[in-house]
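Anyone up for a design puzzle?
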């Protein structure tokens, strides 16, 4: 998804049941290298970062994310009790929960590692190096030290009913991978300031990486706070070559009747689809040529009606940036006359048929049976 979620906008905060109490319990960390050196506040911050990463990767132990009958039942109930626009699409693929796997355990495709080379492992080693004043891992003694730390942390979280160990299917080793208990999540309203992610807070600037603070997007922050009630009945649909023809026709008809507020289209919409009144066209990138631009913008404002045309210019596209600086060459650019290969028999035949059909004066409809007699 392109737009930020509620948590990234600082409007939602996820806490974990009993986390502060576990971090404050000195007996739980007695004899655990590095962790027993930290105060309760720093231990809580470390545990929260680990759990946040597991949650963001959807490694959550909840029925709706498990493979098998749970998701099938969810689809069935959605079809039976919800309107078509809210139910799951037939071609929609649901996401399944993965596992976080401890060092040395078997890992399936899609699972996440907790080894010393993982994102979490590198971050933990950095904290340990700073606290202990020496590098960690990279040799047998160091690897054993890290392995003991990550296992002690996860065992404490399992014992406090925050994590659960389970082997769904095969290949998870004897003990199984780790997931976050859904019952341990505590949902709270945010204060408008997004929570920093220590694992991914560095951004490349020049030849070096420097830390950056998490910032909420003010547009989406205000949008989520104020525009929600206005969007309650708004629905949209995709219009691409991957959509079944009958479903595409249904969505075109619903759009004409105002039942769909928006259509998300591929360039197939250039090919003469009659969609009647259209107030705005938003192009997600700059079309290849002025001819394509004229064709796509021509979908809106027919019969002399005004319309709004927007084209987004991507910062990572040289083509988009070129025409952003020379927008007149696209908006008012020269449309090159099409070239026709007169030696192409199929092309010539189709044009002759089109001319003949126009000369008959027949009123064309969506139903060919009304003007053709099938023998």
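Challenge accepted. My sequence:
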């Amino acid at each position: 998804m392109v737009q930020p979620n509620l948590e990234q906008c600082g409007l939602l905060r996820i806490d974990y049941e009993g986390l502060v109490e576990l971090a404050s319990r000195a007996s739980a960390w007695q004899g655990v290298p590095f962790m027993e050196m930290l105060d309760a506040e720093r231990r809580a911050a470390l545990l929260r970062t680990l759990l946040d990463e597991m949650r963001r990767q959807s490694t959550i132990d909840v029925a709706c994310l498990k493979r098998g009958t749970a998701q099938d039942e969810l689809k069935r109930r959605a079809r039976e009790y919800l309107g078509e626009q809210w139910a799951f699409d037939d071609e929609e693929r649901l996401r399944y929960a993965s596992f976080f796997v401890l060092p040395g355990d078997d890992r399936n495709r899609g699972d996440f590692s907790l080894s010393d080379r993982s994102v979490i492992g590198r971050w933990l080693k950095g904290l340990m190096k700073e606290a202990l004043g020496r590098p960690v891992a990279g040799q047998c003694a160091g690897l054993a030290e890290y392995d003991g730390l990550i296992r002690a942390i996860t065992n404490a979280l399992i014992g406090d009913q925050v994590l659960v160990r389970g082997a769904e299917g095969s290949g998870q080793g004897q003990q199984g991978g780790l997931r976050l208990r859904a019952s341990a999540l505590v949902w709270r309203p945010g204060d408008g300031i997004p929570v920093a992610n220590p694992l991914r807070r560095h951004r490349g600037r020049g030849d070096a990486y420097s830390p950056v603070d998490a910032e909420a997007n003010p547009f989406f922050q205000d949008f989520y706070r104020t525009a929600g009630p206005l969007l309650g009945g708004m629905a949209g649909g995709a219009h691409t070559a991957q959509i079944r023809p009958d479903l595409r026709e249904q969505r075109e008809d619903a759009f004409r009747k105002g039942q769909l507020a928006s259509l998300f289209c591929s360039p197939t919409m250039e090919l003469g689809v009659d969609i009647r009144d259209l107030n705005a066209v938003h192009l997600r990138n700059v079309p290849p040529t002025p001819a394509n631009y004229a064709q796509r913008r021509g979908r809106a404002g027919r019969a002399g009606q005004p319309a709004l045309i927007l084209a987004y210019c991507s910062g990572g596209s040289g083509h988009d940036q070129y025409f952003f600086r020379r927008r007149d060459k696209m908006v008012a650019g020269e449309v090159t006359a099409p070239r026709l290969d007169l030696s192409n028999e199929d092309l010539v035949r189709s044009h002759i048929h089109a001319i003949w059909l126009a000369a008959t004066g027949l009123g064309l409809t969506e139903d060919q049976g009304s003007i053709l007699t099938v023998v």
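A detail worth pointing out: The CA atoms of residues 38 and 131 lie 9 Å apart.
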